[in-house]
């Protein structure tokens, strides 16, 4: 593409990962101790490879988070805290979507965050990008472009070469009056994409996002896709995920070739009482030199690790325990946002 802006793929070099620390005034309150262990494990895994920026609601949250991380021997030289108010910690959906300029600068796309279509309070989350920019987190000259369009980062995936992957279910739910052609054209223009690939099938029970792509199918390179499979004909997801697999098999790369597909194993159902939780191995995070994958204490965890090792042969696959996260209907990728190389001020 000749445009001065480009949407980097997640596997490209990063300057850090952005997260927000859970605290008693978030929806994690009921199981805070359990979810803190997941965050500690996540920060420990990230800092093995690169820096992490942690949003903290106030000084007390920062002091506590630092104490917990230090006591678990996390490399604090790679941890930076930044004060910012937030409603919840799903920064994949409220954090910045970053475009890189050919001249080394950046543009942060600040879409409207509506709490997944008004399901939850999100007024502070909707202001997060502006707050972080005003705090001087990003490289001087970084531009914020505010767009009056509801879109969450988990709803899209790019190959870094002009192809965007998304689901019609989610975008149609957010914008019921819009047709596919106009939605695709707008997203392609905003995110500097040459084409948008839509999936019509695929969902997870217990998912509040209306079928975010990052729970279902992800680019592993410009010619390969990792996706959540279901091989149990008795499971309620079987027909939809099989249909999604067929859709993926019918997609073509920009060069007109079939994608190499890497189906992920299906974990046993995880329930919270009568409620089934949305456990997906597709919700992994790619960082410098590694892929962090959600682990659920299931026999399929190791099989999922093997699939990801084949899809990302040049990266270490690191399991992060995420059973606590799916209680709130998300997983590892949902609580993180990668920041491309050069974006952070320091």
From TrEMBL:
Top-level taxon: Bacteria
Any Pfam family: PAD_porph
Cited InterPro entries: Peptidyl-Arg-deiminase_porph
Keywords carried by this UniProt record: Hydrolase
DNA damage as UniProt keyword: no
Gene3D superfamilies per the UniProt record, alphabetical: L-arginine/glycine Amidinotransferase, Chain A
Keyword Hydrolase: yes
Protein name as annotated: Agmatine deiminase family protein
Native source species: Stenotrophomonas mori
Source organism phylogeny: Bacteria, Pseudomonadati, Pseudomonadota, Gammaproteobacteria, Lysobacterales
């Amino acid at each position: 593409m000749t445009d001065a802006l480009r949407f980097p793929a997640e596997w490209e070099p990063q300057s850090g990962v952005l997260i927000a620390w859970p605290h008693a005034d978030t929806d994690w309150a009921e199981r805070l101790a359990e979810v803190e262990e997941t965050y500690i494990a996540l920060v420990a895994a990230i800092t093995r490879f690169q820096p992490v920026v942690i949003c903290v609601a106030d000084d007390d949250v920062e002091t506590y988070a630092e104490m917990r991380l230090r006591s678990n021997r996390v490399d604090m030289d790679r941890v930076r805290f930044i004060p910012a108010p937030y409603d919840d910690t799903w920064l994949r959906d409220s954090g910045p979507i970053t475009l890189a300029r050919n001249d080394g600068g950046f543009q942060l796309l600040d879409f409207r965050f509506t709490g997944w279509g008004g399901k939850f309070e999100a007024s502070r989350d909707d202001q997060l990008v502006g707050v972080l920019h005003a705090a001087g987190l990003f490289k001087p000259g970084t531009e914020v472009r505010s767009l009056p369009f509801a879109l969450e980062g988990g709803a899209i995936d790019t190959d870094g070469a002009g192809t965007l992957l998304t689901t019609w279910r989610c975008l149609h739910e957010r914008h019921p009056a819009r047709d596919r052609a106009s939605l695709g054209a707008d997203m392609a223009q905003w995110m500097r994409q040459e084409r948008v690939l839509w999936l019509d099938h695929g969902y997870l029970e217990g998912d509040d996002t209306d079928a975010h792509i990052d729970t279902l199918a992800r680019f592993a390179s410009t010619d390969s896709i990792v996706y959540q499979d279901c091989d149990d004909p008795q499971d309620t997801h079987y027909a939809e995920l099989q249909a999604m697999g067929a859709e993926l098999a019918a997609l073509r790369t920009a060069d007109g070739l079939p994608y190499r597909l890497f189906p992920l194993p299906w974990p046993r159902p995880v329930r919270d009482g009568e409620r089934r939780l949305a456990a997906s191995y597709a919700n992994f995070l790619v960082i410098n030199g590694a892929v962090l994958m959600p682990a659920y204490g299931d026999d399929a965890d190791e099989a999922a690790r093997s699939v990801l090792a084949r899809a990302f042969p040049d990266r270490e696959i690191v399991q992060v325990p995420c059973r606590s996260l799916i209680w709130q209907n998300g997983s590892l990728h949902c609580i993180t946002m990668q920041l491309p190389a050069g974006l952070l001020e320091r």
